[in-house]
Specification:
Blueprint (H helix, E strand, L loop, with lengths): L6 H45 L9 H5 L2 E7 L16 H6 L4 E3 L11 E3 L1 E9 L2 E12 L4 E8 L6 E8 L13 H6 L15 E2 L14 E2 L6 H15 L5 H8 L7
Parallel strand pairs: 8-9
Antiparallel strand pairs: 1-4, 2-3, 4-5, 5-6, 6-7
Bound molecules: flavin mononucleotide.
The site of flavin mononucleotide has 11 residues, from helix 5.
Length: 260
């Protein structure tokens, strides 16, 4: 028998190979973590710019993002809060921590979030000191999981500029069509609130009847993906209502929207 064909040697080779491979995987996971985080941040920045119709694909995203101001808002009062450092804010940990979030009753939890953080980051874009767009983080459950995105509103605080999702696990070709540029384009110019301030925006089943008096509050449904479509309606109803940015929007309506 060849000297190399012993059980001992076979085990030594197999174990060594496992050790080398696991060391390589651990090393690349640690080394790439920062890069992955940087890419996630870049993707979010480009989605924020894109929702507000500001993304110029020929220019560096980080450079363009310098035109956006991030502010922390207290969702209870609707007031901006400068006590929390924007760099320290993390939506995930704020929404899990009982001291920085509230539990939602099933009646209020229409976006299926379970808890809602008491603070959020909102993004403002000014043009020559006048507010040009406000971009609001939104999230809620679709069919398979939580869909996270940004809704940009005009300075009238009721007309949509755009809606972009940066994270979801809906099925490509069905619920995943929330990323379809043709569907996203329908959102521009749609209105969120009735004159009395009720959230009316809805993704309907089928196509919007352009002659209907409600057409400005309605978006075509995604075919074969009614559950995802309803999820989008529900997350917007939640975040634009009293439990979300309703108090902020009321506050801003009473202010002169100038960059100071
Ligand atoms: C494999 C598979 C994946 C699906 N993915 C989605 C999805 O991402 N979003 C969704 O709303 N419905 C999805 N559906 C369909 C739903 O189960 C459901 O039938 C649909 O939402 C009903 O929409 P409709 O009334 O427009 O047909 C999927 C179905 C299957 C079998």
């Amino acid at each position: 028998m060849n000297n190399n064909d012993t059980i001992k040697k076979t085990l030594i080779v197999a174990v060594s190979l496992c050790l080398v491979c696991s060391a390589l995987i651990s090393f690349s996971a640690v080394e790439l973590r920062d890069l992955q985080e940087a890419n996630k941040t870049l993707d979010k920045q480009s989605k924020i710019l894109s929702a507000a119709g500001l993304l110029d694909s020929s220019t560096d995203v980080t450079e363009q993002f310098k035109s956006i101001q991030a502010r922390i808002v207290n969702l209870e009062t609707g007031e901006f809060d400068s006590a929390i450092n924007i760099e320290d804010y993390d939506e995930g940990s704020f929404s899990r921590n009982p001291s920085t979030s509230i539990e939602l009753s099933s009646e209020k939890d229409i976006a299926l979030l379970k808890r809602r953080e008491n603070f959020q980051t909102v993004y403002l874009h000014y043009e020559q000191q006048d507010l040009n767009a406000i971009i609001l983080p939104v999230r809620g459950y679709g069919l398979w999981g939580t869909m996270k995105g940004y809704l940009a509103l005009e300075p009238d605080l009721k007309t949509v500029i755009g809606l972009e999702f940066f994270e979801h696990i809906e099925t490509p070709g069905l619920g995943g069509e929330i990323d379809n540029p043709r569907w996203k384009a329908i959102w521009k110019g749609k209105e969120i609130y009735s004159d009395s301030g009720e959230v009316l925006i809805t993704v309907i089943k089928g196509s919007v009847d352009k002659n209907s008096s409600n057409a400005k509050y309605q978006v075509d449904g995604l075919s074969g993906a009614t559950i995802t479509s309803n999820g989008v309606t529900n997350l917007l109803s939640f975040w634009l209502g009293d439990m979300g940015y309703g108090p902020l929007i009321s506050q801003l309506k009473n202010q002169e929207l100038k960059d100071v």
